[in-house]
């Protein structure tokens, strides 16, 4: 491990400096959110770690393994959503993004998350290039469902999950990912015009052809989950979930537990809020998605810093970085939760992986859970026009 990993205190201080520099350089333009450890098991007195490594020809770190339904993945994954464009609208250096993804694999990550809509298309191309040398040793995801022309990438209004469009979308994803199969395919958002049974039927056809191995839903309605699972068992649900966004605890996570479905939190660091480099005076430039998100308005951010302060206190207590506390907290909630933090910075990827080393005793996680839930996070997690696509129920078949 490098020096930062050998000294948790220095690592936390260095990371805060790196993130602050990133902010001052301009965390400018928005994310297209609408397109959007070893196994931690809290036991009495201490948290245990267990899992099996993924054999490969590289010298990789063993992060342990978790299961999303029947799919085995590393305890933490990585999202590639912003690798085609940063928050400040600048385009990252593509070879560096490829290097980050390959380094993530060398450090034990075997779960990589992408989507047709990211770019659109471009992030699948970046991921496909990065994992080509070790494709059979990792699990990759993609998503369909936005109204995107499969040939040109032109975005149309709303959603499109018609079976014929799903199949065309998957063919495009396979080509860009340079693979013959997608390990986990999600419907990116539920289409209110297409019965989920029709969607499942199209995915089942793709499974029969060997092009898709598992499937899931992102931000679906509860009854849609039940109906989809009854027709074609779901492997995972992907929803926004973090210390700041705890809505899934009310219904989605209990339903996943009931049905044996894995859970994948996106934005597990709440668009960088939980990394510790925001303060009450942080403001976001025009074009930054957070500038139009209620949670990040000046008045709400000033209140929500209470949660950031709590995380910082725990970071000092555990000699970790704030982001590591936020990610370790997620993994400590359920053994079948696998967060997928994204980044365009090598040091941040390494830091995120370090969250698997954070240990909570049963008393500590009880204390931390109580403290987190005592803080009322203010402000909607997404703008109205984006949030309107979440929790949608698919229509019944006529």
Automatic annotation (TrEMBL):
GO CC aspect terms: cytoplasm
Q: Which domain of life does the protein's organism represent?
A: Bacteria
Keyword field contains Iron: yes
Residue ranges of the NADP-dependent oxidoreductase domain? 76-371
Matching CDD domains: AKR_AKR13C1_2 (cd19078)
Which Pfam families does its entry note? Aldo_ket_red
Q: How far does the signal peptide extend, from start to end residue? A: none
Alphabetically list the UniProt keywords.
Answer: Iron, Iron-sulfur, Metal-binding, Oxidoreductase
Molecular function in Gene Ontology: iron-sulfur cluster binding; oxidoreductase activity
Has the keyword Metal-binding been applied to this entry?
yes
Q: What is this protein called?
A: Predicted oxidoreductase
């Amino acid at each position: 491990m490098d020096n930062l990993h050998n000294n948790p205190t220095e690592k936390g201080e260095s990371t805060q400096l790196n993130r602050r520099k990133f902010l001052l350089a301009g965390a400018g333009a928005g994310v297209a959110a609408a397109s959007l450890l070893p196994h931690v098991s809290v036991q009495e007195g201490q948290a245990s770690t267990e899992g099996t490594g993924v054999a490969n020809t590289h010298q990789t770190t063993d992060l342990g393994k978790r299961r999303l339904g029947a799919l085995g993945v590393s305890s933490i994954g990585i999202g590639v959503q912003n690798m085609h464009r940063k928050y400040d609208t600048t385009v990252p250096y593509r070879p560096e993004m490829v290097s980050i993804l390959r380094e993530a694999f060398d450090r034990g990550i075997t779960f990589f998350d992408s989507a047709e809509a990211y770019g659109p298309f471009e992030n699948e191309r970046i991921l496909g290039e990065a994992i080509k040398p070790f494709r059979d040793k990792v699990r990759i995801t993609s998503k369909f469902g936005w109204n995107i022309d499969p040939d040109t990438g032109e975005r149309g209004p709303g959603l499109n999950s018609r079976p014929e469009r799903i199949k065309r979308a998957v063919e495009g994803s396979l080509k860009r990912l340079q693979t013959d199969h997608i390990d986990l395919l999600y419907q990116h958002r539920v289409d209110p015009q297409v019965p989920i049974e029709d969607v499942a039927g199209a995915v089942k056809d793709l499974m029969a052809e060997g092009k898709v191995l598992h499937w899931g839903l992102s931000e679906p309605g509860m009854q849609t989950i039940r109906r989809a699972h009854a027709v074609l068992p779901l492997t995972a649900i992907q929803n926004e979930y973090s210390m700041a966004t705890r809505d899934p605890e009310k219904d989605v996570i209990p339903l996943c537990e009931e049905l044996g479905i894995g859970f994948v939190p996106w934005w597990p660091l709440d668009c960088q809020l939980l990394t510790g480099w925001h303060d009450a005076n942080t403001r976001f430039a025009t074009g930054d998605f957070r500038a139009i998100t209620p949670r990040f308005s000046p008045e709400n951010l000033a209140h929500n810093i209470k949660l950031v302060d709590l995380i910082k206190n725990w970071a000092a207590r555990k000699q970790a970085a704030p982001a590591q506390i936020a990610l370790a907290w997620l993994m400590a909630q359920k053994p079948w939760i696998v967060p997928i933090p994204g980044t365009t910075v090598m040091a941040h990827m390494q830091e995120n992986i370090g969250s698997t080393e954070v240990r909570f005793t049963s008393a500590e996680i009880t204390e931390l859970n109580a403290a987190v839930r005592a803080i009322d996070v203010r402000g909607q997690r997404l703008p109205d026009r984006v949030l309107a696509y979440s929790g949608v129920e698919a229509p019944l078949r006529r």
